[in-house]
Amino acid sequence: MGEATARVFAADGAFVAVTDLRLEDAQAVADAIGDYAVPWALDVTNDAQISEVVAAVGERFGRLDIVVNNAGFAAFRSLDDPDYGDTWDRSLAVHLTAPVRVVRAALPFLRNSPAPRVVNIASTEALGATPYDSPYVAAKSGLAGLTRSLAVDLGRDGITVNCICPGPIDTAMTAAIPAEDKDTYACRRTALRRYGRAEEVAHMTLSVCLPAASYLTGAVIPVDGGLMARNA
How many domains does the chain have? Predict the structure, then answer.
């Protein structure tokens, strides 16, 4: 989803900072995009690294107008799983603590931008719950609440803060699910009866950053094929 977002923004004329845990993975995406993208290695659980990379991005491009908090991972755990505590800690670190650290590091640049935007990528797990997913559900629910709070806090600076909640999307996170299981789930649960594409989420992310969305802030927007709307 991050790669799709980078491609969509670059295609619209934005210069893109591509970050990943491994520099070679970020480099591969940046190479595929071309001159509009520059790669950085970034572990979003490392506060010092966040500060260094955000500063480097601002120096390289001379500005930073848009922050998209997209890092994530999936790990289902029951409450009595021996690894539950570690999964809980990592989920909050990656999905909730990291976004606020990134925004804090980017604030000096955002306050100097003519059109500053923050977009947090949460999940429909922020709006409901799947069994054995409580660390992820708690973190993503917190991210939706953080979005509303930051929208209120940063509105005086003209910074909009919105949240996208993808539903079932074909990404690396869902790649291990057999195609027939995806089809069955989508037909039973979504109004559109299919999994979404990463590009469909990326275009919504771009949309809330456009001038037409300058009065939209604090919104939590599902991009889920009608998952949350469908009762049966």
Answer: 1
From residue 210, alpha-carbon distances to 108, 119, 204, 231 in Å are 21, 12, 10, 33
| Helices 198-207/2-11 angle, 10° precision | 50
Q: Indicate which residues carry an active-site annotation.
A: 136
Q: Is the distance from CB of 174 to CB of 131 less than 8 angstroms?
A: no
Domain-located, residue 230: no
Please give the Cα distance from 18 to 32 (Å, whole number).
11
Q: Which two tokens stand for residue 17?
A: 């900072």
Helix-, strand-, coil-residue percentages of the chain, each rounded to 5: 50, 15, 35
pTM for this structure? Answer: 0.94
Residue with tokens 């049966």: 232
Dihedral sign computed on CA atoms, order 141, 146, 147, 148: positive
Residue 229 lies in a domain: no
Compute the half-sphere exposure of residue 30: CA atoms within 13 Å on the CB side of its CA.
19
The angle, 0 to 180 degrees and rounded to 10, between the axes of the packed helices 98-111 and 47-61 is 30
> Using one digit for the tens of pLDDT, what is the confidence trace for 37-79?
999 999 999 999 999 999 999 999 999 999 999 999 999 999 9
